[in-house]
Specification:
Length: 313
């Protein structure tokens, strides 16, 4: 596996309309091709990323009983701890060799949508780790701001007003996910995350230096998305592919940890508001025929998440 993903400098986004158009063209080209790219000069402080990795290691080092006490099945709303083998992103390959912890939009106990039982509205569950909650919520906010900037570039590339997506991400279903992949035992390639496409609009992925992320191009060739210091790996999800009537491509990817070291990564999945309507953007429907019917964002995400979960033994 060779071939590098495009590296896109986001600094010109601060240079007015000309900078926005330049970055939008680069991002649009990547979205139409491999659906993956790196971003640098993205505005998220290196110290903040390092702190969240440190918090991730603290969390996964907790006793299993402490992690299971805030398991995703009990917490609900796509929040909480996910044990090894609990998910299967590529079911024929069996359960994924990873564990995870999810954080969503942080709600107050009296939030009207929470009290009304709206989909993907739940309280976050927190381990007994001083400083953990504050660090993750600060990082969640930084990633949300970065995702909003990239969405402005999407809109510009698609010939839409730059703020087209803004009102669709006011109270999003965005998820921050800490991930740990066990070290390889040398007996073969352990599938940390089976081949899959992401479900939302975009993913911001920070990785350690272990590697293991692989991307399948439209040609079918698998390429390595090698760690790049200081960069995020960004990829298009199925929701945005649907919104653009398949002009943007959400390509399969997987994680195979061939290393004798544990692998840690941190993903931020940018999903729209639950009630946002995902319907083909008219400018993306050249022949007047949309490939997909409109769907509510919460219904689409639930359908995709349900398909990846293995029932408890």
């Amino acid at each position: 596996m060779t071939a590098a993903l495009p590296i896109i400098d986001l600094a010109p986004l601060d240079d007015g309309d000309a900078g926005l158009r330049r970055v939008a063209a680069e991002i649009g080209a990547a979205c139409r091709d491999v659906g993956f790219f790196y971003v640098v000069n993205h505005g998220v402080a290196a110290s903040q990323i390092e702190q969240v990795f440190a918090e991730s290691r603290r969390f996964f080092a907790l006793p299993l009983a402490a992690k299971r006490a805030i398991a995703i099945d009990a917490v609900g709303g796509n929040r909480g701890y996910v044990a090894l083998g609990r998910e299967a992103l590529d079911p024929p390959q069996g359960g994924d060799q990873k564990e995870a912890f999810n954080v969503g939009l942080d709600l107050a106990p009296d939030d009207p949508e929470l009290l009304a039982g709206k989909p993907f509205r739940a309280l976050n569950a927190w381990p007994d780790l001083p400083g953990f909650r504050a660090a993750l919520l600060a990082y969640y906010g930084s990633c949300g701001a970065l995702a909003a900037r990239i969405h402005r570039a999407f809109a510009c590339d698609l010939g839409l007003p730059p703020d087209f997506f803004a009102d669709k991400f006011v109270r999003p279903m965005a998820t921050l996910r800490l991930l740990r992949y066990p070290a390889s035992d040398g007996a073969g390639d352990a599938i940390g995350a089976g081949a899959h496409t992401d479900y939302g609009n975009l993913t911001l992925l920070a990785t350690d230096d272990v590697g293991g992320l692989e991307v399948r191009k439209r040609s079918g060739e698998w390429i390595a998305a090698a760690p790049l210091a200081g960069a995020f790996v960004v990829n298009i999800g199925d929701c945005l592919m649907r919104w653009t009537n398949d002009i943007y491509v959400s390509n399969p990817h997987r994680v195979v940890n061939r290393s004798a070291r544990e692998r840690y990564s941190i993903a931020f999945f940018s999903d729209p508001n639950p009630d946002a309507e995902v319907a083909a953007i008219p400018a993306c429907v050249a022949d007047g025929a949309a490939k997909y019917p409109p769907i509510r964002a919460a219904d689409y995400l639930k359908r995709r998440l349900d398909a990846s979960v293995i029932a408890p033994a």
